[in-house]
Design goal:
mainly beta; Immunoglobulin-like; four-stranded mixed β-sheet; three-stranded antiparallel β-sheet
């Protein structure tokens, strides 16, 4: 497990899947505060962030590729209407094939 990250997902190298970061449920947004901009990054390199979109409280990204048996830290970085810049992360483990 990557240090400091508690959520872990697994994805096959051949898949392109969507993931949602919920900034409202995680108490990152105050009442009436919204997300004004968002980006998603992954480390180390090799995982493709194919698209990023956001609503008032959610960031949605699509991820593809990656190297089998590698773990990636995926982080959503936002700027809010109040000028705050919180982030949320999860770990994505890449497998060669989807397990049943």
């Amino acid at each position: 497990m990557i240090d400091g990250i508690t959520k872990v997902f697994t994805q096959a190298q051949s898949e392109t899947l969507d993931y949602t970061f919920d900034f409202a449920t995680n108490s990152w947004l105050a009442s009436a505060e919204t997300i004004n901009s968002a980006s998603v990054v992954s480390t180390p390199s090799g995982l493709n962030v194919t698209s990023v979109s956001f609503t008032n409280s959610f960031v949605i990204c699509f991820l593809s590729s990656g190297t089998p048996d590698n773990s990636y830290a995926v982080t959503a970085l936002v700027t809010t209407s109040a000028g705050r810049k919180p982030s949320l992360s999860f770990q994505l483990d890449i497998s060669e094939f989807r397990s049943a």
